[in-house]
């Protein structure tokens, strides 16, 4: 792989696009990072994928700072639902429920007998006029497809007459649920501890839930569902880079404060990239200094040869 990248450099290419990258390896054994370092020294941009699957948790690959690392998202927004507990505490969760359901100062419960939320019999026995929102532990019986588990819980709650639910799960597979047909919000383990603590210490716990909320998210766009990967994402970014490079842009700094989006996060906007704002023109020595600061090697005898580093 390194020889191929070296040959591309020798051929005088402007951009090297690397869609591969499935497992994390140490930097000194990372062939893409080593080859990309040499390309960077010649002013050649290397693009690489941040991973090759999702939305499960995983370790970033192709994360060397001299590589343009590409992730995927269908939107720059996070779809959220906000819980407001009776004590005024606000917690943000995730929800694709499409309507503006009115859940305001509604009674809230967490009961270990029904917290699996998958038995209509148990839920029916627990339902009472003064209990309208239930806290559900994430489904455990659908490990192969968590989305099916959530859908089953929603159906059980709807059939028994609960108004809404708060689902507890830190598993990213929960985000693969394409159907959110009843009012509900997914929260993580940390937030669930706060909710349970509030319920246990309050005689008549209540909650308000606001749906249809979106927030800007720091993350190139994919035309598919929000949780599905797109296999040709890196070439898309490489093509945009080639278009911008053909403009031979000269950028001057304005000394204006920047944001996470200005330093390389967020969705690609080719038009705005023509006037990118703050630019730090890093040199190979800057990257060597960075490696030294991370104790990747003995810097008493520095070298710009990554294989020696």
Global mean pLDDT: 76
Largest sheet: 7 strands, mixed
Helix content: 25-40%
CATH architecture of the largest domain: 3-Layer(aba) Sandwich
**What structural class do you assign from the helix and strand content?**
alpha/beta
For the record, what is the CATH homologous superfamily label of the largest domain? Answer: Peptidase S8/S53 domain
Number of domains: 2
Order of helices and strands: HEHEEEEEHEHEEHEHHH
CATH class of the largest domain: Alpha Beta
Give Rg in angstroms. 25 Å
Low-confidence stretches: 220-231, 249-254
Helix tally? Answer: 8
Shape: elongated
* Neighbour order of strands in the largest sheet: 5-4-10-6-7-8-9
Q: Can you give keywords for this protein?
A:
309 residues; alpha/beta; 2 domains; seven-stranded mixed β-sheet; three-stranded parallel β-sheet; serine-type endopeptidase activity
Describe this structure in words.
- The chain has two domains: 2-74 and 221-293, Rossmann fold (3-Layer(aba) Sandwich); 77-216, Glucose Oxidase, domain 1 (3-Layer(bba) Sandwich), CATH 3.50.30.30.
- The protein is built from eight helices and ten strands.
- It is α/β, with parallel strands linked by helices.
- Helix content is 27%, strand content 19%.
- The chain has helices at 2-10, 31-41, 120-126, 146-160, 189-200, 233-246, 270-273, 284-293, and strands at residues 15-18, 45-49, 68-70, 77-85, 90-94, 103-109, 133-137, 164-168, 184-187, 206-216.
- Helix 3 packs across helix 4 (146-160).
- It has a seven-stranded mixed beta sheet with strand order 5-4-10-6-7-8-9. A three-stranded parallel beta sheet has the order 1-2-3, sandwiched between helices.
- The protein is elongated and about 75 Å long.
- Residues 220-231 and 249-254 have low confidence and may be disordered.
- This is Peptidase S8/S53 domain-containing protein.
- Residues 2-83 form the Peptidase S8/S53 domain.
- It comes from Solanum lycopersicum (Tomato).
- InterPro entries: Peptidase_S8/S53_dom, Peptidase_S8/S53_dom_sf, SBT.
- One of its GO terms (molecular function) is serine-type endopeptidase activity.
